[in-house]
Amino acid sequence: MTTSQPAVSTAEAVPFNKQPRDWKKIGIIVLFCALPIALLVVFTYLPFFQMCGYSFYKMKYIGTPKFIGFKNYTDIFTRPDLLATLKLSLYYMVGALIQVALALYLATVLAFKVKGGSFFKGAIFFPYLINGIAIGFIFKFFYTRGYVLDSVLQWCGFSLDNLPYWLRDQKVNNWSLVASSVWRYLGQTMILFIGAIMSIDGSLYEAAEIDGANKWQQFKHIILPGIQTILVLNIILSITGSLSAFEAPYVITSGANGTGTFFVQMDKIAHSDQKVGLASAMAVVLLVIIMICALLQKIIMNYLFRDADDGTAKARKHAQKVEKARKKAMRQQNKVAVGAAPLFKNGSSAKTETAVES
After folding, report:
1. What pLDDT score was predicted for residue 207?
2. Which residues are registered as beta bridge partners of 57?
3. Distance between CA atoms of 291 and 282, rounded to whole angstroms?
4. Is the CB of residue 125 less than 8 Å from the CB of residue 187?
5. Does domain 57-309 correspond to CATH entry 1.10.3720.10?
6. Phi, psi at 69, each rounded to 5°
7. CA-CA-CA-CA dihedral for 261, 267, 268, 271, to nearest 10
8. Which residues have a Cβ under 8 Å from the Cβ of 305 and sit 6 or more positions away?
9. In the predicted model, what is the mean pLDDT of residues 233-261?
10. In angstroms, what CA-CA distances link 172 with 87, 146, 180, 191, 203?
11. Which residues contact 132 (CB under 8 A, 6 or more apart)?
């Protein structure tokens, strides 16, 4: 005896895409993406790989290059003058951390309503808009013996004979250059922090005040977790920028009196000495150091904020679990149904049905 059962439609259980592919739109997207990708490859990646190749040669801008293997890399870590320039990066790293801490403090104050807040934001951010070469000349005269800084200190009661030579004395000249960099980039870091702090929901502060939390507790448990991403970004930008410091020492002192950073020395070797292979190796080493520092910062910040969560991570994990459960249920439903139907059908074709008879 044969009995018929109603047809089981698997197509009704899945979404139906009635919109055909818009190939014109896809073509426009591809064309718009092709130009910037081509520029990136031609002017960034190809020169980078060529530079990596140059680092294995002893060569000048004119002449036949000579392959010497890893000798350029060994010279970087054996020549005292190059090792000394790497040590100078520590000054700028300390200055970068001071810059981030000061910017975070100012942003925490100026992100809320204070008298003259807009003026102070603009005044602190303004140095970042000035050209780096111009800032170099400003501080060159600012630190020159008997000029602005010495005059201000004399007004405060200091004797000129007791003041150091800010750009000549090797005990203070690097700190003077670091101060100019901090002054220039403080506003940029502060503005990024202000934007992140203002994006935090204000009801969190009201709830914390009701629970009796003071300002420090609000900063520790609300602001810091809420700006974790921007904090990590600013630290990475500041540290990597300190490793490639160039404008301040190049313009203010021209790298004299022990102020030549790794980047300044690399410029001298490449253009004055025309040791292109050694300069290329220095650039590769600098890139590797920056990548290692960025990775270490990421690991350290993840460890410090391991218990901090503003709810985003939990929501993301919950959404992933829901999506995984939905896909699993759909697979089981397709197995039960007789005949497999596609997840989406393009065009306006009719739904297919499969009849089950026994």
Report:
1. 87
2. 67
3. 14
4. yes
5. yes
6. 70, -130
7. 180
8. 224, 225, 228
9. 87
10. 15, 16, 13, 29, 47
11. 184, 247, 248, 251
How far apart, in whole angstroms, are the C-alpha atoms of residue 309 and residue 304?
12
Question: Pick from 123, 241, 92, 240: which is nearest to 191 by CA?
Answer: 123
Mean pLDDT of 142-151: 90
Q: What is the pLDDT of residues 322-357, one digit of tens each?
A: 888 888 888 777 776 655 455 444 444 444 444 444
Chain center to CA of 32: 25
Q: What is the mean pLDDT of residues 279-286?
A: 91
The burial of 197, by beta-carbon neighbours within 10 Å (0-12 exposed, 13-18 middle, 19 or more buried), is given as buried
Alpha-carbon gap, residue 260 to 91, rounded angstroms: 12
Residue 59 burial (C-beta neighbours within 10 Å; 0-12, 13-18, 19+): buried
Q: Determine contact, residues 223/277, Cβ cutoff 8 Å.
A: no
DSSP element (H, E) containing 67: strand 66-67
pLDDT of residue 7: 47
Contact indicator for 232, 301 with CB cutoff of 8 Å: yes
Helices assigned H by DSSP within the chain: 23-40, 46-54, 71-76, 80-110, 117-129, 132-143, 148-155, 173-198, 203-210, 215-218, 224-226, 228-243, 247-248, 262-267, 276-304, 312-336
Exposed, middle or buried: residue 283 (CB in 10 Å: 0-12, 13-18, 19+)?
buried
CA distance 143 to 165: 8
Phi, psi of 305 (to 5 degrees): -105, 30
Beta-carbon contacts of 141 under 8 Å, excluding residues fewer than 6 positions away, are 147, 148
Q: Are 184 and 128 in contact (CB under 8 A)?
A: yes
23, two tokens = 């190939």
Per-residue tokens: 74: 């060994």
What is the SS3 assignment for 185? helix
Amino acid letter, 118 = S
Give the number of residues written for the chain. 358
Residue-wise pLDDT tens digits, 222-244: 888 888 888 888 888 888 888 88
